[in-house]
Amino acid sequence: AGPNRPVRVWCDGCYDMVHYGHSNQLRQARAMGDYLIVGVHTDEEIAKHKGPPVFTQEERYKMVQAIKWVDEIAPGAPYVTTLETLDKYNCDFCVHGDDITLTIDGKDTYEEVKMAGRYRECKRTQGVSTTDLVGRMLLMTKAHHSNIDEDLDYRKHTDNFGKGPKGHSPWTGVSQFLQTSQKIIQFASGKEPQPGDTIIYVAGAFDLFHTGHVDFLEKVHQLAEKPYVIAGLHFDQEVNRYKGKNYPIMNIHERTLSVLACRYVSEVVIGAPYAVTADLLDHFKVTLVCHGMTEVVPDKDGSDPYKEPKRRGIFQLVDSGSNLTTDLIVQRIIKNRLEFEARNQKKEAKELAVLEAMKRLEEK
């Protein structure tokens, strides 16, 4: 690299269920250089090495593209990171979390780039893993909410989760997510609204931040020349009131980071009131309030939470063109996970049968 050439950084992965842990990895990688390219594997590649992904490659490309630290995505990146790929995209080095990734035959997928000195590591985000999120969906308890005492089921689950037959894997195990002001600062844009900005307010749970949310926020962002989008996130108890069951799957702290990582959002209100009040609209000098095509559940007293913005004539329905909801995603993930587990148990049973047969042969 010449003295003035920007440092180009490479990351790659499945990015199947993108959560703030992935975003945080990409944030750290971007900070190591000037331009971040993210390689995303195809459905076919993932199916070969890990089993079929929950999201389609198109959905996964869109999710990664929406993360604000990503400058470019490379669709259909090979599963094993090679020097050839780094050279093709003109990248100086690749960055990966400090956990290991093994290929189908048990080799470190980053071996080649490590040998060439073009590998850097970033810290894995504590307190979240896809495995844990799936566990919360399957359990249907509410212990993962920030304001509920942990119940025994969840504690048992966190004790067992991610433990293989040989005890405990440090990578898929569960540790409690601890929010700090530092994390929020790292994720926040830090931009104040500028004169001439259109301040747009949207509110919701934004649970398990997904492509349906991305499509909606992108549409909202396109409504103005200079949009400043503020997302109001409801507290866990409020979301549970209108969604029921074990929703939200992610607690308020986790949802805050997920939404802050999105390039279409400028600011987040942590624990926004369910009713969009005159106070809130005046405080943020809101020009426009948007809601998607999903049902609006009435407030506790039966009133319309959007009564005030409608009275002011600043309310607008926005069709994201996506029918994806958190409910649908939970169904998809549970179905996928149950198939995944069944397949693994079969594989394990086969291996055990072989071992048994070998033992019997030896005994003869």
Topology of this protein?
Blueprint: E1 8-13, H1 20-31, E2 35-40, H2 43-49, H3 57-65, E3 72-75, H4 83-88, E4 93-97, H5 111-115, E5 119-122, H6 130-139, H7 152-160, E6 163-164, E7 167-168, H8 181-187, E8 198-204, H9 211-221, E9 227-233, H10 236-243, H11 252-260, E10 267-270, H12 278-283, E11 288-291, H13 307-311, E12 315-317, H14 326-363
Parallel strand pairs: 1-2, 1-4, 2-3, 4-5, 8-9, 8-11, 9-10, 11-12
Antiparallel strand pairs: 6-7
Helix pairs in contact: 6-7
Explain what this protein looks like in three dimensions.
By secondary structure, the protein is an alpha/beta fold. It folds into 3 domains: 115 residues, Rossmann fold; 81 residues, no CATH class; 131 residues, HUPs (Rossmann fold). The strands form 3 sheets. Strands 3-2-1-4-5 form a 5-stranded parallel β-sheet. Strands 10-9-8-11-12 form a 5-stranded parallel β-sheet. It has a two-stranded antiparallel ribbon with strand order 6-7.
Tally of helical segments: 14
CATH superfamily of the largest domain: HUPs
Structural class designation: alpha/beta
* Number of separate domains: 3
Strand content: 5-15%
Taken from the alpha-carbon principal axes, the silhouette is globular
Order of helices and strands: EHEHHEHEHEHHEEHEHEHHEHEHEH
Number of strands: 12
| Poorly predicted runs | 157-175
CATH class category label of the largest domain = Alpha Beta
How does the major sheet shape up? 5 strands, parallel
Task: Give the CATH topology of the largest domain.
Answer: Rossmann fold
Instruction: Round the mean pLDDT to the nearest integer and report it.
Output: 87
Trace the largest sheet across and list its strands. 3-2-1-4-5
The level of helicity is: 25-40%
Q: Kindly report the oligomeric state of this protein.
A: single chain
| Rg computed from alpha carbons, rounded to a whole number of angstroms | 23 Å
Instruction: Please state the second-level CATH architecture of the largest domain.
Output: 3-Layer(aba) Sandwich
Distance between the termini: 65 Å
GO molecular function, one term: ethanolamine-phosphate cytidylyltransferase activity
Protein name: ethanolamine-phosphate cytidylyltransferase
Keywords: Coiled coil, Lipid biosynthesis, Lipid metabolism, Nucleotidyltransferase, Phospholipid biosynthesis, Phospholipid metabolism, Transferase
Coiled coil: 335-364
